[in-house]
Amino acid sequence: MALKNSINEILTDIENRVSDKILEPSNAALLKKLIENTADLDEAIKIAELGTTYKKTGFHFDKRLEKEKTDTITYFKKNEKLSFETDKNALTHKLIIGDNYPALLNLLVEYKNKIGVIYIDPPYGKDSMGEFADTNYENAITRDNLLSMLYPRLVLARQLLSDTGIIFCSIDDKNQAYVKGLFDDVFGESNFIANLPTIMNLKGNQDEFAFAGTHEYTLVFAKNKSGAVFNQFILDEEKVLDEWQEDEIGYYKKGANLKATGVNAPREKRPNLFYPIYVNDNNNLSLEPRENCRKLLPITNGQEMSWRWSKEKLQNELSDVIVAGENGDTTIYKKQRPGIDNLPSAKPKTLFYKPMYSSGNGTNQLVSVIGEKLFNNPKPTELIKDLVFISSAKNAIVLDFFAGSGTTGQAVLELNKDGGGRQFILCTNNEKTDTTPNGIAYDVSSKRLKRVMTGKCYDDTNNFKWLERNKPLGDNLLVVDIETISDKAHQKGQMPFDVIDETLYGTEKLSVKDKIEWVCDNFEKTTKQSESDADYLKRKETPG
User: Fold this and answer.
1) Of 217, 204, 127, 205, nearest to 177 (Cα)?
2) Number of folded domains in the chain?
3) CA 461, CA 440: separation in Å to the nearest integer?
4) What pLDDT is stored for residue 131 in this prediction?
5) Do both 92 and 190 map to the same domain?
6) % pLDDT > 90, the chain
């Protein structure tokens, strides 16, 4: 039943492409016929992918089909070494170690239509993808490879999202247009929410050509935009508005005195900036003498000083000064216009920025937990916290299937300080590098989660900087590995029913008969019960 439902959802997507005039009806009919005759979700996804080659937008990429073992079943196996429990009544979060494609297939068993938020930060340069890259992409994520890798994963991600679910994707400026085209295809252009320039380096990367790079992008899509609900940031609006006034140009507040100060302020230092300004009773300025106007000169304690602006600049920008004072005591101030984040808004802005979003902040946060730099360019927790906060309820399930260093997990735990019960599910490979000889999952992700959740590492050490300012965040962590078994294992006396643990999929312990039906219903390549299954059942039910 689970497989049939998933395939029916893909067929519905094919029909939508026809109604959106993306796919010709005759081509759609052929794709549907092929899909209806497959008993394999992976195969159905690849057939559906053929419908993305030609689009009204001209979106096109050369497919790179993944190499896979067609005679194996993938399943979750509990990692006893890395799993831990702090309180049996607390939330249990999940960390999946292995390729995220089989991880997503396995998650469908328990979480189909249940995930509230998905955040991903896929590799979009020549980042290593571990053993998979060696055999499939030759360790270089070209654009075709990136899109080919993402497509089937996005199809599965869409099936995991709840009807009100939201997905975020971080992407660079070189690939964002193409990746958005892929999202348009999988989620539908009508479900596009925003493409947020996300400021990661306000100063700008001076090494980039022509322009100092300040940002990447965050794509935002809904599964169904009509049902999507977004929260607003919590602000003291009265305080914010009290700080700023508004004129015909926009918001402003009182800035620096137009009269210069400092060592270069005296008239002899800048003689061309010593000139009279005329102010009438209504505090209107003029640079020419007029009737009923008083003359202002930049004089402090009897010493002739200078203005900050030249006469020409003041003439051109009279709307950017404030005249304050009365009874002849007059001071001229510059109007300070708000910068990117000086005027916060309760509704998130399309230019997504806070000082805490800096990439350097992400690195510092990880080092404070791990103790050294073992992972490049981790996202800052504040960015993920804000994305999750604005897009979900307090009890949402949050999935990140490119989890890397585990930032999303820590962000969810910190966000739950608001009394929420959000659960995270992370998936990361265990790529081994010079700095992570045991693999990223073992040397970074799991250690980070263990330390921030319990206040100590797996070896009971607790001498890391993060603890100096923070208390352990609590909760439990279930860690599972992606394991495989041949669908012909019964020929060697092994059966999937022996190794697959249904309790890892939110199911209570089943009887032998029910277990066989459950496995066959939920795991591809075992959908047809065979004589060997009957023999297995008979053997298990026979005492002794």
Assistant:
1) 217
2) 4
3) 19
4) 44
5) yes
6) 48
Written as one letter, the residue type at 450 is K
Q: How far apart are CA 343 and CA 356, in angstroms?
A: 16
3-state DSSP assignment of residue 338: coil
Q: How much is the CA Rg of the chain, to the nearest whole Å? A: 30
Q: Same domain, yes or no, for 48 and 126?
A: no
2/33 same-domain check: yes
Q: Is residue 240 included in any domain, yes or no?
A: no
- From 148, 175, 183, select the one nearest 65 (Cα to Cα): 148
Q: Which two tokens stand for residue 217?
A: 């992008």
Greatest mean pLDDT among 57-61, 133-137, 462-466? 462-466
Range of the domain at 493: 487-541
Domain check: are 124 and 262 in the same one? no
Q: Which pTM does this prediction carry?
A: 0.78
Q: Is it the case that residue 58 has pLDDT exceeding 70?
A: no
Joined tokens for residue 508 = 């209570």
Residue 208 and residue 102 share a domain: yes
Higher per-residue confidence, 115 vs 45: 115
Looking at residue 22, what DSSP letter applies? S
In the numeric block, which tokens belong to residue 328? 């002849």
Q: How many angstroms separate the CA atoms of 75 and 38, rounded?
A: 21
Task: Decide: 489 and 497 in contact? Cβ < 8 Å.
Answer: no
DSSP sequence for 84-129: B-S-TTS-EEEEEES-HHHHHHHHHHHHTTTEEEEEE----SS---
- Asked whether 81 and 447 are in contact (CB, 8 A), the reply is no
Structure tokens at 207: 């090494």
361 with 462, same domain: the answer is yes
Q: Quick one: average pLDDT of 501-527? A: 84
Q: Which residue type, as a one-letter code, is found at position 386?
A: D
Residue 299, token pair as written in the block: 């004089």
> In residues, how long is the chain?
544
